[in-house]
Design goal:
- The longest helix has 20 residues, at 78-97.
- The chain has one domain (32-126).
- 60% of the residues lie in helices and 0% in strands.
- It is built from 5 helices and no strands.
- With 132 residues, the protein is mostly helical.
Amino acid sequence: MKLAALAVMLVLGCGSKKEEPAADPAPMVRPSVADPIGFCERARIMMTGRVKCFPEDTSIKMGLEEIADLVAKAPTEAEPRRKVAASCASMLDGMMRAQQPKNCPLDVTAEERAELETFLAAWNRDRKAAPP
């Protein structure tokens, strides 16, 4: 009987194999910002992650609706489209600047932060000051 139990343990592996972590069923694809509207997609992804942590927060749901509306109404001309992207980039920047809960951190790379900062700096530099 002991020999049969030992054989079963050997066949099953009994911890001899390393278990590989389960793959994420839907890995997050980092959206490109070749088109500035990519900042809207990044903001949507961030907010979607927040909904998982805070499902009762209606402000996140309202933000998702606003992003969807901005993207749906985005013009095709470059400068007006860039203005829409600046709105999404500002939302994204606000999320990154807010204190992050330890149980729900934002999934943002250093390159994405730098890209966002560069875009917003250029946007703010290019905007014309109001006449005196």
